[in-house]
Amino acid sequence: MAHHDSTGKPFTVAIVGGGIGGLALAIGLRHQGISVQIYEAAPAFAEIGAGIAFGPNAISAMYLIDPAIRDAFRRLATKNGFDEEDETWINFRSGFGEPTLIAKVQTGDQEKTGLSSVHRARFLDELASLIPKDIAHFGKRLLSFQEEASGKLTLVFEDGETAFADVLVGADGVRSRVRQLLLGKESVLDGLSFTGKYAYRGLIAMDKAREAVGDELAMNSQMYLGKDGHVLTYPIDHGKTMNVVAFKNKEDGPWEHDHWVLKSKGEDMRRDFANWGTPVRSVLDLMVDADMWALFDMLPAPTYYKGNVVLVGDAAHASTPHQGAGAGQALEDAFILSMLLGDKKTRCAGDIPAAFRAYDAIRRPRSQKVVSTSRTAGATYALQGEARDNLDEVGEELLQRYKWIWDEDMQVQAEHARALLGQ
């Protein structure tokens, strides 16, 4: 796909936020001949966290936005270390006693994606390389926006600068300023909900991990389930590093810290998992620097748009990571939204709300279902609720849990959105 000279449509788009969703949308809009500018609060495009996984649905969305995105993903992706684990998403195991296999969940699509993880920052660099440098503006933290009599939107940034556009997209993450303004909330934290869980995150050199738990457990993705917690390990950096996330239920009440990330909590982590099985304890003993992350998600927003302002990604539907599906939903958003804005029925700025109405109708139910089912998945992994003593039942649930997310036909989703645009 050649990059068009962006003069195809008589309206301009301002994207606030240069994460995966914002950049993917910018790439998609440029292919539709739509003029776009990106405003990022940080001094450069940057992602926090290490590994990020994408299911078959997300990889399909990448291809439909721009085959170069999928190519970059394939170049960067780390797969399981054993050939026979190629299709495996996660091996779910008992976290107490012996690491008995509870369920081997496989993606089973034509791509045989398995748990293909990429390093967030490197993937973002690849996305950034697909857009012209001059459309990205850094150090731009949105203060407010207003609609002028002309219908144009004026964006005001904290540094005093202003920008103008016909369309404003909030791709500014879980603490979204665009969402706060759009929904008329008191603070960027309104509508966010502490999920009762926190997670320790860290990285381990793979040779050390292999020494500690053996090749099979170290080099392939594993999730250890236990009472009130679960521990996820998988290879990143083309197998040189093990990514570890250890989730724990908080005993009581809200998150009482000002910060969502607390540095160097290794001692707390070892105490939290002291009575777990040998593989879990062996892995956690190797984590020198474990940070603790509070897990928040988003209560269902009543709408993803008003007028010519719209939300994508975490700004619209921040989720817990329990189904490895959050970033994939941002890519689905980017594909559907760029396709609707590029559609021949979207001729001018006055047609934008109809495009957003179709986007909202198609994307909101599915993305919000990902949020709610991710929360439920977290409860299943921590063996909460009734029948949780029956690991066979847990295994059955896990084998079914992801299908509706992965088996989504993105072309059909696009057709449904187009049909709504015609009404």
TrEMBL record:
Keywords: FAD, Flavoprotein, Oxidoreductase. Pfam families: FAD_binding_3. InterPro entries: FAD-bd, FAD/NAD-bd_sf, FAD_monoxygenase. The keyword Flavoprotein applies. One of its GO terms (biological process) is secondary metabolite biosynthetic process. Residues 12-373 form the FAD-binding domain. PANTHER family: FAD-BINDING DOMAIN-CONTAINING PROTEIN-RELATED (PTHR46720:SF3), HYDROXYLASE, PUTATIVE (AFU_ORTHOLOGUE AFUA_3G01460)-RELATED (PTHR46720). This is FAD-binding domain-containing protein.
